Amino acid sequence: MSRYVIRRTGAAIMTLIAASIVIFAFIHLIPGDPVYVMLGDGATPEQVAALRDRLGLDEPLVMQYLIWAGNALRGDLGVSIFFETPVTQVIAEGAETSILLASVTMVWIILIGVPVGILAAIRQGTLIDQGLSGLAMLAASLPTFWVGLYLILIFAAGLGWFPSSGYPSIFEEGGLVNLRYLVLPSLALAAPNAALILRLTRASMLDVAREDYIRTARAKGIRPTRVVLRHILRNALLAVVSAFGFTFAALISEAVVTETVFALPGIGRTVVQSILRRDYPVIQGVILITVCLYLVINLIVDLSYRYLDPRVELE
Amino acid sequence: MLSVENLVVSVRRGPEIVRDVSFEIAPGEILGLVGESGSGKSMTSLALMGLLSPGIDITGGAVRLDGTDITHLQPHQRVARNCGKVAMIFQEPMTSLNPVLRIREQLEEAINVHDPRAGPERARELLDMVRIPDAGHQLNAYPHELSGGMRQRVMIAIALACRPQVLIADEPTTALDVTVQRQVLGLIRELCDSLHMGVLFITHDLGVVAQLADRVAVMYAGKLCERADVGPLFRAPLHPYTNGLLACLPDPESGNAAFETIPGAAPRPGAIPEGCPFSPRCNRAQETCRSGPVPEAHGPERQVAVCHFPVRQEAPA
């Protein structure tokens, strides 16, 4: 048991080290002198020297990496060139919005994708199934910005049920009621992902339903609902749960378009703006944190597999 | 007593795959149902269980258990109506158990349905009945931790949890090693005798039938072509198809290395010849065989073959 945990964690750490080297090298991939690129043509020699010193560009490459990685481990991702504040602070400002948006979206995806997928599978081949599968296809292929704009048009501009843009922190005035700002963006972001989870749940249920052990379960004389919930769903979810993991992590980076449409102060928008401002430390920081997020979530999924599928321990 | 009367199973908007099949199984009796793959053996058994896939239905005849009509009832409906039980074990013990549930959970699920008042010792008792050593420990195992033979024993234990009047065994030993196969066959015979349970044993292996069964039904192209007690059938088959099957068994004493074969191939459902379905492959067939109904020919004891020109062998001197 613990060997499995150690192996999985070890693999995650190795991946993180490899990724951090690539992210570190990123600043050296800039053509020409990164300092001039970051500061622009009008930089004074003093500014250039100061930045060069701050980035440690005069040290040997290996030392540069070790210093950078050591700082990152202590939570110091450097200083934003544009804001002149620590990168961690810049990212933290967007983090609340992004994490809440991803979480609310994930709730939609699970609440809509899984039950509707089960329904489509149980009613396989009927009009219900065909209708739902058609809707899922539509939801998966419509661009998020288009769905977002229509949601604003109908539910914000038209009916006035939800605000159309912005997001005040839940720690400020309004408290949890501020979550209503995230309803429309999370729905827009959930649509294509819920459609994928729906199709995955349906396909996985139908696969499992053909297994011999489902016939055994029916032969016992247990009720059909119990066959579906305990035997089919339990095994079908094995495939779906691993999709939850990477869907959640992808939501953080996928949210860029949605954050723009709904003018949300999230990490996605920070990245886009930082790219335009050539604020390399911020870009590096966001990529590093996103990588960590992917690794942690996948690790959680891998470890939870041990509880869902007893066969995993042997492998 | 399980009686199957003129059973017809067909694919919706498609051909009949089981045609007019009748047989009976008495308590404590093993009926071997023999036929090539595609002859309709498995469909017959799934129809008896009420486990036909969607799109395949019983379109004629009846299945009765101790006089109660259970033709169109699925297993859970049979439980709800408290009628007699038919249980089943399958060909692939490796895939017939749910991989994510412990043996105890899978066994207790069946016990709870059929024996709601049974205590926790019932699961252990069932594993003891199928001769699983160290039953207390094995109850907590997952299927992947057991060997093929052990899994098939667990399947039998689950089937017995239903307290069935009839057990259907669909090629239960085909996927097992020969030595393990022996043990499982012995166990089935023993349980049949001690629990006074009827067994429908489906196989394509005539050797197994000869060892295990009391009576035999031979199936060809969805129909029964011959029914008989084991002795008479192996001594003097009436139907040319049965005769051909027996001739295919290698005879180690004759020293003849060449295997006999029946020329041609079994017809597919939907392309079954008129008259006697075996006539195109039969060396005794004449014009009358190729159309119209085929009469039954009776042999000694309860032997019946559906044939115009049955094989009548010289009585052994």
Automatic annotation (TrEMBL), chain A:
The chain crosses the membrane at residues 12-30, 99-122, 134-162, 182-200, 232-252, 282-301. It comes from the Bacteria. Keywords: Cell membrane, Membrane, Transmembrane, Transmembrane helix, Transport. It is found in: Cell membrane. Pfam families: BPD_transp_1, BPD_transp_1_N. One of its GO terms (biological process) is transmembrane transport. One of its GO terms (cellular component) is plasma membrane. It is a multi-pass membrane protein. The keyword Transport applies. InterPro entries: BPD_transp_1_N (IPR045621), MetI-like (IPR000515), MetI-like_sf (IPR035906). The keyword Translocase does not apply. Residues 95-301 form the ABC transmembrane type-1 domain. Belongs to the binding-protein-dependent transport system permease family. This is ABC transporter permease.
From TrEMBL, chain B:
GO terms for cellular component: plasma membrane. InterPro entries: AAA+_ATPase (IPR003593), ABC_Ni/Peptide_Import (IPR050388), ABC_transporter-like_ATP-bd (IPR003439), ABC_transporter-like_CS (IPR017871), Oligopep_ABC_C (IPR013563), P-loop_NTPase (IPR027417). Pfam families: ABC_tran, oligo_HPY. SMART domains: AAA. It is found in: Cell inner membrane. Its main location: membrane. Keywords: ATP-binding, Cell membrane, Membrane, Nucleotide-binding, Transport. It is a peripheral membrane protein. Residues 2-246 form the ABC transporter domain. GO terms for biological process: peptide transport; transmembrane transport. GO terms for molecular function: ATP binding; ATP hydrolysis activity. Belongs to the ABC transporter superfamily. This is ABC transporter ATP-binding protein. It comes from Psychromarinibacter sediminicola. The lineage of its organism: Bacteria, Pseudomonadati, Pseudomonadota, Alphaproteobacteria, Rhodobacterales.
